[in-house]
Amino acid sequence: MKNFITQLNKAFESRIRLGIMSILMVNDWVDFGELKETLALTDGNLASHIAALEKEQFIVVRKSFIGKKPNTAFQVTQEGREAFQSHLAALEELVKGMK
Fold first, then answer.
1. Which of 5, 10, 41, 61 has the greatest count of CB atoms below 10 A from its CB?
2. Where does the Winged helix DNA-binding domain lie (predicted)?
3. Residue 73, phi then psi, degrees to nearest 5
4. Which segments of 14-64 does DSSP mark as H helices, in order?
5. Separation CA 17–CA 35 (nearest Å)
6. Domains along the chain?
7. CB neighbours of 46 closer than 8 A, spacing ≥ 6?
């Protein structure tokens, strides 16, 4: 049996990062407030996980203003999309291998 666990990406070990990436995979841009509310996180907790994904270049950050109010939004990069899909494929293989 192959060792599928070694194919899992450490960047996605956190359930929060899995949640962030899952949301970004099916949406074009998602703003900070929406992620925070959907995942029920504090500002600091979300910001630290966003920073980790941004460091890996799995997401991009867009800062803008809506009227006079600042807005921060996120989008998955092609590299992030490929890494997340590979991670999910490894999880599927791991589950299949356990049957």
1. 41
2. 16-95
3. -130, 160
4. 15-25, 32-39, 43-55
5. 11
6. 4-97 (1.10.10.10)
7. 16, 20, 32, 35, 36, 39
